[in-house]
Amino acid sequence: MSLIEDLGVRAKEASLKMATLTSQAKNRALEEMAQAIIFNKEEILKGNQEDIKAGNESGLSSALMDRLKLSDERIGDMAQGLLEVAALPDPVGEIVDGWRLPNGLEIQKVRVPMGVIGIIYEARPNVTVDAAGLCVKSGNAVILRGSSSAINSNRVLTDIISKAAEGSGLPAGCIQLVTLTDRESAKELMRLRGYVDVLIPRGGAGLIRTVVEESTVAVIETGVGNCHTYIDAGADMLKALKIVVNAKCQRPGVCNAMETMLVHEAVAEEFLPRAAEALGERGVLLKGCERTMRILPDIEAATEEDWYKEYLDLILAVRVVPTLEDAISHINTYGSKHSEAIVTEDYSAARRFVNQVDSADVYINASTRFTDGNQYGLGAEIGISTQKLHARGPMSIRELTTTKFIIYGDGQVRS
Amino acid sequence: MSLIEDLGVRAKEASLKMATLTSQAKNRALEEMAQAIIFNKEEILKGNQEDIKAGNESGLSSALMDRLKLSDERIGDMAQGLLEVAALPDPVGEIVDGWRLPNGLEIQKVRVPMGVIGIIYEARPNVTVDAAGLCVKSGNAVILRGSSSAINSNRVLTDIISKAAEGSGLPAGCIQLVTLTDRESAKELMRLRGYVDVLIPRGGAGLIRTVVEESTVAVIETGVGNCHTYIDAGADMLKALKIVVNAKCQRPGVCNAMETMLVHEAVAEEFLPRAAEALGERGVLLKGCERTMRILPDIEAATEEDWYKEYLDLILAVRVVPTLEDAISHINTYGSKHSEAIVTEDYSAARRFVNQVDSADVYINASTRFTDGNQYGLGAEIGISTQKLHARGPMSIRELTTTKFIIYGDGQVRS
Question: Cα–Cα distance between A132 and A139 in angstroms, integer?
Answer without folding.
Answer: 11
